[in-house]
C-alpha cells in the first residue's frame, strides 16, 4: 500500500510540475481573426517566416495566432526584438495562454489549451492485489485562472488608485486608443478606448478591462518604455525641458543655436533642440534657413504663424519634423529626423516630444559658447550640411509681379527652380534662338526694382556694368562688374548680340547689362563651351535689349522702357542694378 501511495504521489508531483511549467510560459500574440479560414491563412503566412507559430481558439470565439511558447523574460525580449525589426504588428502583445482554447495550428495538432504538460509515463511499481484499495486522493491541480465577469471587472477597477488609473490611460494612449487628458477619470472617451483595445485584441468589447487585460496592457506599455528609454531631459544651457528616447539617442555637442543628440546606432534617429535669442523676425529667418538643410526634405506640409512654425519633410530616404516658437524674446523648438522604416518608432517618439516640450526660464543657448570658423559659417549651418543647388546663375526682374529673365542653360533639366534661394519658380518658356528663359514665381513678388530697357542708341566704347551673383549664394548681394561696350554684333556679324570688353565668371550669366543711366541694354550670356574655340579673357557677349523685347513681345509680354539720359552716380547705379538682379538656382 505504501508503494501504491508513493506511485500516486509521484504522478501528482509530475502533474504539479507540469502545471507550474505551463504557468511560467508566455506567448507573443500577433493577430486575431474572426473566422477559422482567415486565421489558418494568416497562420500559414506567419509560418513561412517563423518556426514557432501556433493558433488557438480564444475565449472571445476569435482565433488567435501566436509565437511561442517562451519563458516570460524570453518572451518580453522576443516581443521587443520583433517589434523593433517591424516583423510583427505594432499592437502585438504578451499573453500567458489563459485565453487559449482548442488548437487549430499547426494543422493536425489540435489539442486543448496549453495549460498543463503531458504526464510522464507511469513508473513501474509493485502493488499487492487487494480487493479494495483505499488511498488518500492526490490534490487536484489548480484550474487555470478564469477571467473576470463584467461585474467582477468593475469591482476590481473600482479598487484602482488614481495613479493606476492614469497609468492605464497612458498605456491606452501609447497604443493609440486614447487621445484625451490623462486625468484618471474613466469617462466615455476612456471607455471607448478600452472597448477599441478589447476589439483589437479579439476580446469582448465591454469597455471595462479585466485585471488580466489591464495587467497585460500596462506590462506591454512598460516594456515599450524600457525599449525607448524615455526620460525627461532638463537642458539647462538651452532652457528647454523635453522627453527624449535616451535608449536611442545621446547628447553629442552644442553648436548654437542647436543642441545635437546623435543616434546611438548607425542610421538611427537624430534629435536637435533649437534655442536662440530673437523675436518674430528671428523665427521667420530660422524657418527659411532650416529648409535649406539636407535633413529637411523639400516635400511635406509647412505652416507658419506670427509666433510659431511647423515643418514636415518627406522623401524616399528621410523624414523630419521641426517645430519652433517665440516667447519673451526667445526662440525655442526641436527637430526630429528619421528614416522611412522607422516611421512607427518616430510616431511614438514625436508624440512624447510634442506633449512634453516646454521652455525653462528666460535663458537661450549662448551664441558665443562654441567658436565657429568662417568656413563653417559659409558652408555649414551649425554643423549641418546645407542643401546645395546643382547650378546657380543670375537673372533680373522684368515686371512688377516678379517675373524673371535668365538664360535657358541655367534652368535646363532642373527638378525645381528657386529665386534668391527661397521662392519657387517655374519656366514659362525657354527660347532656343536667343538662349533665354522667362520664369514666373509660384507666388507674386514685389521686386525692389524692375528693368527699364534702353531706348537711346548705343555708343560703342561707352562704359557698361554687369550685375550678377558671381559667387553664387556665397555673398548676400550681386557683384557689380564694370567694362566697355565694344561691338553691336557678334564676331561673325551676328545681329541681336553685343560684344563686351569685360571679365566675368559663370555665375554672372543671365545678369543685366546696364549703361551709365541704369537702362538695360542686354543680358549677359554664358560662355561658349566649345573646346575647339577658346576666346581670350575679357571677351563676353550679351543678348541685345531689342532682341529680348522682340522675343517677349511676340508672346504678348511688354517690357518697361526708360528714356533717362543723365549718368547715375556710382552708388545709385549700384542700388538700381542690385535691386533688379536675382539669384537663380537649379536643383536636382
Structural features:
alpha+beta, Muramoyl-pentapeptide Carboxypeptidase, domain 1, 12 helices, Protein Transport Mog1p, Chain A, elongated, 588 residues, Alpha-Beta Plaits, 6-stranded antiparallel beta barrel, 7-stranded antiparallel β-sheet, 4 domains
Could you please describe the fold and organization of this structure?
26% of the residues lie in helices and 29% in strands. The protein has twelve helices and 31 strands. The protein is elongated, with a radius of gyration of 37 Å. It has a seven-stranded antiparallel beta sheet, sandwiched between helices. The protein folds into four domains: 2-105, Sporulation related repeat (Alpha-Beta Plaits, 2-Layer Sandwich); 150-218, Muramoyl-pentapeptide Carboxypeptidase, domain 1; 231-381, 3-Layer(aba) Sandwich (Protein Transport Mog1p, Chain A); 389-588, Thrombin, subunit H (Beta Barrel), CATH 2.40.10.120. 34% of the residues are buried. By secondary structure, it is an alpha+beta fold.
Describe the structure in brief.
The protein has twelve helices and 31 strands. The protein is an alpha+beta fold and 588 residues long. The strands form seven sheets. It has a seven-stranded antiparallel beta sheet, with helices on both faces. It has a six-stranded antiparallel β-barrel with strand order 18-19-22-21-20-31. Strands 24-25-26-29-28-27 form a six-stranded antiparallel barrel.
- The CATH topology label of the largest domain is Thrombin, subunit H
Number of domains: 4
- Which band does the percent of strand residues land in? 25-35%
Number of strands: 31
CATH class of the largest domain: Mainly Beta
Q: Tell the overall outline.
A: elongated
What is Rg?
37 Å
Distance between the termini: 92 Å
Strand adjacency order, main sheet: 8-9-10-14-13-12-11
The helix/strand class is alpha+beta
Major sheet characteristics = 7 strands, antiparallel
Q: Mean pLDDT, rounded to whole units?
A: 83
**Spans where pLDDT lies below 50 across 5 or more residues:** 1-23, 115-128, 133-144, 374-380
Helix content: 25-40%
The CATH architecture assignment of the largest domain turns out to be: Beta Barrel
Helix count? 12
Amino acid at each position: 500500500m505504501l508503494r501504491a501511495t508513493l506511485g500516486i504521489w509521484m504522478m501528482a508531483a509530475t502533474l504539479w510540475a507540469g502545471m507550474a511549467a505551463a504557468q511560467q510560459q508566455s506567448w507573443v500574440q500577433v493577430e486575431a481573426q474572426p473566422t477559422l479560414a482567415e486565421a489558418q491563412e494568416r497562420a500559414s503566412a506567419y509560418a513561412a517566416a517563423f518556426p514557432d507559430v501556433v493558433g488557438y481558439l480564444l475565449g472571445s470565439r476569435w482565433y488567435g495566432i501566436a509565437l511561442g511558447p517562451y519563458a516570460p523574460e524570453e518572451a518580453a525580449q522576443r516581443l521587443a526584438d520583433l517589434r523593433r525589426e517591424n516583423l510583427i504588428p505594432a499592437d502585438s502583445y504578451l499573453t500567458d495562454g489563459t485565453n487559449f482554447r482548442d488548437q487549430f495550428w499547426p494543422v493536425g495538432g489540435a489539442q486543448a489549451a496549453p495549460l498543463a504538460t503531458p504526464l510522464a509515463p507511469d513508473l513501474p511499481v509493485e502493488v499487492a492485489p487487494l480487493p479494495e484499495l483505499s488511498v488518500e486522493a492526490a490534490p487536484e491541480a489548480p484550474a487555470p485562472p478564469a477571467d473576470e465577469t463584467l461585474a467582477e471587472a468593475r469591482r476590481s477597477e473600482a479598487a484602482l488608485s488614481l495613479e493606476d488609473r492614469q497609468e492605464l490611460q497612458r498605456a491606452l494612449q501609447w497604443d493609440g486608443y486614447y487621445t484625451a487628458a490623462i486625468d484618471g477619470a474613466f469617462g466615455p472617451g476612456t471607455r471607448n478606448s478600452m472597448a477599441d483595445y478589447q476589439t483589437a485584441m479579439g476580446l469582448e468589447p465591454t469597455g471595462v478591462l479585466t485585471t488580466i487585460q489591464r495587467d497585460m496592457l500596462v506590462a506591454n506599455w512598460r516594456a515599450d518604455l524600457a525599449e525607448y528609454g524615455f526620460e525627461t531631459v532638463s537642458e539647462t544651457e538651452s532652457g528647454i525641458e523635453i522627453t527624449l528616447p535616451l535608449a536611442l539617442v545621446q547628447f553629442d555637442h552644442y553648436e548654437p543655436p542647436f543642441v545635437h543628440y546623435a543616434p546611438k546606432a548607425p542610421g538611427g534617429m537624430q534629435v536637435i533642440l533649437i534655442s536662440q535669442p530673437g523675436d518674430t523676425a528671428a523665427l521667420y529667418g530660422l524657418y527659411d534657413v532650416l529648409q535649406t538643410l539636407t535633413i529637411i526634405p523639400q516635400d511635406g506640409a509647412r505652416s507658419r504663424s506670427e509666433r510659431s512654425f511647423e515643418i514636415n519633410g518627406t522623401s524616399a530616404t528621410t523624414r523630419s519634423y521641426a517645430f519652433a516658437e517665440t516667447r519673451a524674446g526667445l526662440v525655442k523648438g526641436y527637430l526630429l529626423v528619421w528614416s522611412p522604416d522607422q516611421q512607427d518608432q518616430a510616431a511614438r517618439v514625436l508624440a512624447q516630444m510634442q506633449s512634453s516640450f516646454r521652455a525653462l526660464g528666460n535663458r537661450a543657448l549662448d551664441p558665443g559658447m562654441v567658436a565657429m570658423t568662417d568656413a563653417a559659417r559659409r558652408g555649414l549651418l551649425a554643423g549641418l550640411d546645407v542643401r546645395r543647388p546643382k547650378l546657380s546663375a543670375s537673372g533680373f526682374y522684368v515686371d512688377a509681379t516678379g517675373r524673371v529673365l535668365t538664360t535657358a542653360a541655367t534652368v535646363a533639366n532642373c527638378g525645381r527652380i528657386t529665386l534668391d534661394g527661397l521662392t519657387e519658380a517655374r519656366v514659362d518658356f525657354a527660347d532656343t534662338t536667343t538662349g533665354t528663359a522667362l520664369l514666373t514665381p509660384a507666388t507674386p513678388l514685389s521686386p525692389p526694382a524692375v528693368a527699364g530697357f534702353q531706348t537711346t542708341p548705343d555708343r560703342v566704347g561707352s562704359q557698361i556694368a554687369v550685375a550678377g551673383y558671381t559667387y553664387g549664394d556665397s555673398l548676400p548681394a550681386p557683384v557689380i562688374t564694370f567694362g566697355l561696350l565694344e561691338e553691336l554684333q557678334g564676331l561673325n556679324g551676328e545681329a541681336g548680340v553685343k560684344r563686351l570688353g569685360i571679365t566675368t565668371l559663370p555665375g554672372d550669366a543671365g545678369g543685366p547689362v546696364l549703361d551709365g543711366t541704369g537702362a538695360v541694354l542686354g543680358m549677359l550670356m554664358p560662355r561658349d563651351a566649345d573646346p575647339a574655340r577658346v576666346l581670350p579673357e575679357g571677351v563676353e557677349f550679351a543678348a541685345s535689349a531689342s532682341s529680348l523685347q522682340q522675343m517677349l513681345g511676340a508672346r504678348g509680354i511688354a517690357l518697361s522702357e526708360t528714356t533717362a539720359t543723365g549718368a547715375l552716380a556710382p552708388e545709385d547705379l549700384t542700388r538700381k542694378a542690385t535691386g533688379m538682379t536675382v539669384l537663380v538656382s537649379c536643383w536636382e
